[in-house]
Amino acid sequence: MPLYEYFCESCQMDFTLLQSTDTNKEESECSECGSRNTRYKFSSFAAKIQGKPHADLQKPVTVDDLPNKNGLRIPAARHISEYQ
To answer: Could you tell me which residues come within 8 angstroms of residue 17 by beta carbon, excluding any fewer than 6 positions away?
Structure first.
C-alpha cells in the first residue's frame, strides 16, 4: 500500500497515511486532530526495478546523434536580448 500526504485545514498540519489505492481520499481523517477537513497533496513516488538492462539497449539518442539536427524545422533557441 502506498503512502499519501495530506494537509489538515483545521490544525494546519501535514500528515502521511498508509492507505489502499481505492480509499476515498476525501474521507481521510487528520492523524493529529481527527478532523476530516483535509486536503490531499499530490506527491512524487519512487520505484525500484529489479534485473539487468536488456543487452540490445544503448545510450539514449539525442538530437546531436541525428544526421539532420534540425529535422523538425524548429527554430534555434535565442536569448531574450536577441528579440529586441
So the answer is: 3, 4, 6, 28, 31
Classify residue 51: in a domain, yes or no. Answer: no
Please check whether residue 71 lies inside any domain of the structure. no
Q: Which residues of the chain carry a pLDDT beneath 70? A: 53-57, 69-72, 84
CA-CA distance, 38 to 42, in Å (whole number)? 13
Distance CA 34, CA 28 (A): 9
- Please count the structural domains in the chain: 1
Predicted TM-score (pTM) of this structure: 0.51
Measured from the Cβ of residue 44, the count of other Cβ atoms closer than 10 Å reads: 4
Q: Do 36 and 17 contact (CB within 8 A), yes or no?
A: no
Whether the CB-CB separation of 13 and 39 falls below 8 Å is answered with no
Q: Give the domain range for residue 14.
A: 3-41
